[in-house]
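Record minuted for completeness.

…
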Amino acid sequence: MPLETLPFDSAQHLKTQEDIALYLQAVLEENDPALFCHALGQVARAKGMTQLARETGLAREALYRALSAEGNPELATIMKVMKALGVHLSVEPAQAGA
């Protein structure tokens, strides 16, 4: 009998602000903008896309599109979403050879 599996949904595991911050930090370290947008979308789903739409002033459907792996949101959108999620980006010097 073949083993049945379910797709992994990271949104189900993002319970605390620390979970969210660590998840987004790990994704940022991959240096993949599409992956980061997707991860931000997962966090948004975990927090509630409708509430996020209200807090950012952006349409829920536009958020789903922008925060998908295929999305390409403007930096202003990313910043609004991150503020509403209670996280922020920070900048630090790159390590030599990185």
User: Anything to note?
Assistant: The chain has a mean pLDDT of 87. The helical segments are 17-28, 33-47, 49-56, 60-66, 75-85.
